[in-house]
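ugh ok fine here u go
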Amino acid sequence: MINITFPDGSVRAYEKGVTGYEIAKGISPRLAEEVLAVAVKPAGDTTIGKGETRDLNRPIEEDCSITLLKWEDDEAKRVFWHSSSHLMAEALEDLFPGVKFGIGPAIENGFYYDVDLGSHQITDADFPKIEKRMLELAREKQDYTRIDVPKAEAMKHFEEKGDQYKCELISELEDGTITYYTNGHFTDLCRGPHLRNTDVIKAVKLTALAGAYWRGDETRGQLTRIYGITFPKKSMLDEYLVVLEEAKKRDHRKLGKEMELFTFSPRVGMGLPLWLPRGSVMRFELEKFLRKKQNEYGYLPVVTPHIGSKDLYVTSGHYAKYGKDSFQPIHTPQEGEEYMLKPMNCPHHCEIFRSAPRSYRDLPLRMAEFGTVYRYEQSGELHGLTRVRSFTQDDAHMFVTPDQLKGEFEKVIELILYVFKIFKFDKYTAQVSLRDPNNKSKYIGSDENWEKAENAIIEAAAEMGLKTVVEYGEAAFYGPKLDFMVKDAIGRKWQLGTIQVDYNLPERFQLEYTAADGSKQRPVMIHRAPFGSIERFTAVLLEHTGGHLPVWLSPDQVKVLPISEKYSDFAKKVCGLLNNSDIRASIDDRNETLGKRIREISLLRVPVLAIVGEKEVEQGTVSVRKEGADAGVMKVEEFVAWLKDQMAQELA
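structure:
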């Protein structure tokens, strides 16, 4: 017998080899229908989280704790969508014989499969027949069966099938670690986990086609990436499609064009945004907002160059980790001298710390910079402002004593939560991003320092009462982090804001301060960026608000509209008074109807309109509309005070 511990702390004894499905069915037949997978953590495992996600049919052989996962759990959705990618692959093999497969993972919303179509072609017009075939296969209630296979047998199978992609993946695996999954007539190289069978997949929608280089390498062949999403109920798909349509309306690339905020130019280069005048105003206001708050927390401004010596990034470890994926070194006329476009601000800030002797009395030392950095993203990964090659981080680094670490970390959490409050990101989760315990070679630094850093983050998050989830393998290469995942107005998740604890860069840069006893000690470094980057934050904020920004942040806060030309002089006086009161206002006195001007201004999302006609001129007033709603008639001075009050409330 083995002992199974449940989330409520209760313990039950079961026969060795019991499955998650059998456990669920023993509790309730209805529960067995709802459960999609099981998370298993061996007894004595003290790591955070639910444990390894497994198939419901996989035997449990030892004492452990389990969590039965349903659709509401993110882990269950990943299993559901990964299984759906296999179902789509089976349908593709039926409809397009000879097709070969790369990888087919679950993603945040749905799944994709990278496919080599050979002589076949697929367009959006083929989606309905693929969806239909997927549903036909799903109704067959095909079991997902896990099979352990020797490496030689796996290689032979896919060589005979002529699938060079799977053969390449198998060649990199250790014998004894290789598993297949089969459903129907489809067999795939896969670690799993998967659903029990296909019957729970009730609704299917293929959403997009894209090109994708095999393993992200532009020198390799290009495959066709087919995206899709599935649900256990058709009503869920219907709801998702409504959200999808709303997302198209809120696409920041569309809004950025309509609102005249930013543009891109192939002549300037892919992934390099150009901020237009209105977008630049918005960007400057974001920076001003955060600078003011940072001053209250004792941050000191610094400025660093856009390039740095290659040796700087060799010292920091960035070159070893990211050098081949970065913009390549710049060679100067001086032989042997190499510079790089700055991929990170932190090495520069370490050098600022080193520039003078430091005492424990100087700590915590908080450096803040809106620093532009450069990363070479693959062309297929670029997407508006959310994935670019040049972006500005609201970066800061705190150098603290070990005793100051937790308190300083909590202050950064306070700052990030303040930012979320102002921008009305009310739904968020803090993700504790730890290193992969099974692949420590990806990270720099000692186990002792990693444990200290991870414990500091976990304790600080708990003391601040944050709702957290743990993700192994999501840490930065130099330290663990706390990533804030927000939900926007239509329920989509975005990563905004990050805090990282770092014992490693101070070691690599030999940073030190003089302690109270006169000894030399290493500071601990905290990295933080509440926005993440100005570009990404702008994109997320536009999609969250649909472009309807708060008045204080809007590039044009007020548009003054004279009903006809004869009221233009008074409109100009109103506009002048507003500008003199530090309110961004402009006049639209074009020879167009008032209705047409209002419709065109609505594309710019100007929040406040001040309309003037004969009555307003006679009484020294303006008719005010805010976000399309009548806000009343006001004396011009009252209007100024009203605007100031609106902005004060937005920033309270």
